[in-house]
């Protein structure tokens, strides 16, 4: 039997209340709605959520078309960016969390100039070995900072972190602290176009550890909407 709108809103309200009490006001909650239907997004919107994260371009564009009446939504792209989809990402997302190479950053900067767009961006870093994740190695990122600082169209705001699955809370907090320290190290260089005012880290299973380490954005899906 399908879940009614009233049941959906009641379940979401309960989960949001439980999670909201654990997220301080200065941390931005991004509701990750990948694979969830438009009805879920509308229910979340009705509860006051305005930030939504997606990781598949075509899926998200279809949702955005259906939700075009919600004019104050901020869309966050959190997935891997294929080169042939980068222009679409720039056209339809306000935040891009997953810039994982200098080559991609340069492509986005060039295309953003052509589109007259100035998206907020995060650099995805891989702090621990994980064959399932993309991202800059910290030493690699430090090496290419002068090149990133030459990019003037995209607005580099900070780092995005996804830790490997299966870490215990202490391991997770240690990983997030590494990200905070890396951001501080970058910030100390005083670059013009590379800012570090954002740490996008923490998901349903580890967001409290991320917040304790200094996260400014948490990306929560199953914790709000249940299992996919």
Question: If you had to describe this structure to a student in words, what would you say it looks like?
Answer:
The mean pLDDT is 93. The chain starts with a helix and ends with a helix. It has helices at 5-20, 38-46, 57-66, 86-92, 102-115, 138-148, 169-187, 207-212, 222-225; strands spanning 28-32, 51-54, 74-77, 95-99, 120-125, 155-161, 194-201, 217-220. Helix 2 (38-46) links the parallel strand 1 and strand 2 (51-54). Strands 7-6-5-4-3-2-1-8 form an 8-stranded parallel beta sheet. It has a single domain, classed as Alpha-Beta Barrel (TIM Barrel), CATH 3.20.20.10. Helix 1 crosses helix 2 and helix 4 crosses helix 5 (102-115). With 228 residues, the protein is α/β, with parallel strands linked by helices.
Given as residue ranges, the uncertain stretches (5+ residues, pLDDT < 50) are none
Helices and strands, in N-to-C order? HEHEHEHEHEHEHEHEH
Looking at the structure, the CATH topology is: TIM Barrel
How far apart lie the N and C ends? 16 Å
Helix segment tally: 9
What is the total domain count?
Answer: 1
CATH class reads Alpha Beta
